[in-house]
From TrEMBL:
Residues 1-29 are annotated as: Disordered. The chain crosses the membrane at residues 68-89, 95-115, 122-142. This is Uncharacterized protein. Keywords: Membrane, Transmembrane, Transmembrane helix.
Length: 372
């Protein structure tokens, strides 16, 4: 007996067979599959056509935006370096020149173009921030402020401007005035003698003790043409009492004693700036000295000079017993902490403006020959 085998799964013809895959395979055939066909991961079914190679220039198009971002960033950094150099040398006018404005626009344009691309967006944003923050307006303003503060402008000055910048005297003031007045050394000697006599007399009469609250100093005077003159502003040693000077009658007596002593050294009668009898608005007097009348004021300021010479004598009293708000005490505590001077009491100092040293007379005279 002949055994019958199972009928074949497929017959010889196409009847019952699965359809032939379309050209290129089924959609999604590249997905990861695990099955009888053994396709794993990013493989493709057996017999499927190979992937098409990338189009020529596709990689270049991807790199181009990133390159544009780097170019924009480099341009922004270069612009900042140029601006910093101009700031250091004090060329304030260069920031507002057509060249700098064009460079600024170029940097801004590159930054905006880079931001518009996906690959160069981050670098472009950095470059755009630099271009907006450190622009010609900001850097130009900084340069102008620096030049105004230091007087270091050396841009496109004419020879005439440079000549007058070195003028040894003061604009609109006759040079002979500085040659004929007290010299710096003479005022220094007068200040030492006057202040020593005043301190000695006040100690003898009222028992006041003293401490030097600031050393003498000299500061060059500006000549009015953008430079420094050969003249200086002199401030003597500042002396302060270690104990308060309080009470209207006592303060008045102390000031009159000072006036009598300085008169012996050629100083004129003293003027009380804090006295409303001088015609100053009482409201202003109150704001400046802490009270509308000398009896209620925290500060007293008396002044004298030795005209026609340039010396100014100052005697100031701070009396915190009249400070009803505590504002003056708080201010004085901050000052005392910074300078070490007493909180209150009497202070003496002498100031001289436009002082010419005897050591510079010849140089001053010689330098004046360059000017009409």
């Amino acid at each position: 007996m002949v055994e019958r085998s199972d009928p074949p799964r497929y017959v010889a013809d196409s009847a019952g067979a699965p359809p032939v895959p379309p050209p290129g395979g089924y959609r999604g055939a590249r997905r990861a599959l695990l099955g009888a066909n053994g396709v794993v991961g990013g493989g493709r079914p057996q017999g499927a056509p190979a992937e098409a190679p990338p189009l020529p220039g596709a990689d270049a198009r991807t790199k181009s935006p990133r390159t544009l971002g780097w170019i924009a960033l480099a341009a922004g950094i270069g612009f900042v370096i140029v601006a910093l150099i101009l700031l250091v040398i004090g060329a304030a006018d260069a920031f507002f020149s057509p060249t700098m404005l064009v460079l600024q626009l170029v940097v801004l344009g590159l930054a905006i173009a880079a931001v518009a691309t996906r690959a160069g967006r981050v670098l472009g944003a950095v470059a755009l921030t630099v271009a907006l923050v450190l622009n010609v307006g900001t850097m130009g303003a900084l340069s102008t402020v620096r030049v105004a503060a230091t007087g270091s402008y050396a841009g496109h000055k004419t020879d005439k401007q440079k000549l007058w910048e070195a003028y040894p005297g003061i604009k609109d003031k006759e040079p002979s005035r500085f040659l004929n007045q007290q010299s710096l050394e003479q005022l220094q000697a007068l200040a030492d003698e006057t202040l020593a006599d005043v301190r000695a007399q006040l100690t003898a009469q009222y028992g006041l003790q003293w401490v030097k609250s600031a050393d003498a100093q000299e500061r060059p005077e500006r000549n009015g043409y953008g430079g420094e003159s050969m003249l200086v502003r002199f401030t003597s040693d500042t002396w302060a009492t270690t104990t308060p000077v309080t009470g209207y009658a006592h303060k008045l007596e102390v000031m009159r004693t000072i006036e009598s002593v300085i008169a012996q050294h050629g100083w004129r009668g003293m003027v009380a700036f804090n006295d409303p009898a001088g015609g100053v608005d009482p409201t202003m007097i109150s704001k400046m000295y802490g009270g509308a009348t000398p009896e209620t004021q925290v500060d007293w300021e008396w002044f004298s000079d030795d005209e026609p010479d340039p010396g100014w004598f100052y005697a100031d009293i701070t009396d915190l017993a009249n400070d009803t708000t505590g504002e003056y005490r708080a201010s004085r505590e901050q000052t005392a902490k910074r300078t070490g001077e007493p909180l209150e009491g009497l202070q003496l100092a002498i100031v001289g403006r436009y002082m010419l040293s005897e050591k510079k007379v010849d140089d001053f005279t010689k330098a004046l020959t360059k000017y009409p």
